[in-house]
Amino acid sequence: MELIRVPSLAVILWSISLSAAPPLLERLKDEAARGQDQWIYNDLAKARAEARRTGKPIFVTFRCVPCSACEAFDAEVAKGSKAIRELAKKHFISLRQVEMKGVDLSQFQFDYDLNWAAMFINADGTVYGRYGTQSADGPDAYNSVESLEKTMRRVISVHANYATYKKYLTNKRGKPKPYKTALEMPGLEPERKKKFQGLTERNNCIHCHNVHDAENNQLQLSGKWSKEMLWRYPLPDNIGLEIDPKDGLKISKVIPNSPAAKAGLMAGQSISYINNQLVFSVADIQWVLHNLPNAAATINVYTWNSNRNYTLTTRAGWKKTDVSWRGSMWDLRPRLRVYIPKAKPQELKKLNLPEGQHALRVQWININSPEGRAAKKAGLREGDFIVALGGKSFDEAISHRAFNTLVKLNYKSGEKLALSLLRKGKRIALELPLQ
């Protein structure tokens, strides 16, 4: 006799609540996508099926809807730009992906610290290119509707001649991951995994940077972590090339005495291939550089308007750059769980510090975290001003992001931060334990 499994009441109630939930677009309040029929909404399987049926390439945008960074650029791409809308509708199967929960991380590999990113792929999984770049200069320093349109047109041209160009696209897809989605990542902390398994809402979606968080966490827990892993997706600037953000491939400046300058590259040239990979954007250049070692390396750059190849040679440490802007830096150990923005001019005046010295104000201590509780137990208080670290005063203005990065690069969990504080005009020495 066959036994019939009856769903538990909890499962029945969960199913009812899920089916009764408003559509994802409504839950996220995604106004940029409302009424835009050029987009398939957060459905990778449907986009793949349509790409196979139509023979069109897939244009995928990854956007964290609640984030304010890149909001204006996202709105232009999603609904504002007529040129982007027409290209997206006529030449692509266009997918708006608004969370990372079900994304295949072997297929879609890019810089997950971005607030807005795009990938172009063939229905067979071949990656044409990437778009979207961020840096300490801001979330939109390298993104523009003009360069995105040019990138899309480059992809369209290559797709039309796919058989000819396929060999130059081979290395644009990353190595397979041992897991498929973010929820399967071993470094995703259990309490977060449990939360993320729930219904996707504005306050409960897997952000792109959570993928880097989980990667960092697993490496640290396994003892395989190295600072070298922080230098992800270096800019073309690291090899001496400043790229026109409205073009994406045109060299606007060659930095003197850089590897690019020594190789003979010049402003005005446009890059076509790097290490035999076809490139379409700054993000594509970053992908090639990302996969090179942070040591002496040879980089071959081919420019189409000079019709020649240039050989660049890097030195050890060439990938190191300012990573303070990265969202994944917050979860990297040691964790402070204290928000300390730089003191305002009027606050500095009241502190009576020597001319030229700066401070950080303790605005918030997260007492719901072990790190925050440890900071409070050690004596740190909201309203304190940090005026020195390790006996060294801040001779330049320092942001909370920069301070956070300084700690993570120079201290380890279990150590203590020797802080000098000002509290109501009184100087206090405090040792802050790093959990």
How many β-strand runs?
18
CATH 4th-level superfamily of the domain at 21-164? Glutaredoxin
Nearest-integer average pLDDT? 93
Q: Span from first to last CA?
A: 57 Å
Catalogue the unreliable spans. 1-6, 8-19
Task: Using the alpha-carbon principal axes, give the shape.
Answer: globular
CATH topology of the domain at 21-164: Glutaredoxin
Share of helix, binned: 25-40%
Name the CATH architecture of the domain at 21-164.
3-Layer(aba) Sandwich
- Largest sheet data: 5 strands, mixed
CATH class of the domain at 21-164: Alpha Beta
Specify the structural class: alpha+beta
Strand portion, in percent?
15-25%
Number of helices: 14
Give the structure's gist in a few sentences.
By secondary structure, the protein is α+β, with helices and mostly antiparallel strands. The chain has helices spanning 9-20, 24-28, 44-54, 71-80, 82-91, 145-160, 162-165, 190-196, 209-221, 259-263, 282-290, 345-351, 370-378, 400-410; strands spanning 39-41, 58-63, 93-97, 116-121, 127-131, 241-243, 251-254, 271-274, 277-278, 298-303, 308-313, 338-339, 360-361, 364-365, 385-389, 392-393, 416-423, 426-433.
Describe this structure in words.
- The chain has 435 residues and is an alpha+beta fold.
- Among the domains are: 21-164, 3-Layer(aba) Sandwich (Glutaredoxin); 333-433, Pdz3 Domain, CATH 2.30.42.
- It contains 14 helices and 18 strands.
- The protein has helices spanning 9-20, 24-28, 44-54, 71-80, 82-91, 145-160, 162-165, 190-196, 209-221, 259-263, 282-290, 345-351, 370-378, 400-410; strands spanning 39-41, 58-63, 93-97, 116-121, 127-131, 241-243, 251-254, 271-274, 277-278, 298-303, 308-313, 338-339, 360-361, 364-365, 385-389, 392-393, 416-423, 426-433.
- The termini are far apart.
- Residues 1-6 and 8-19 have low confidence and may be disordered.
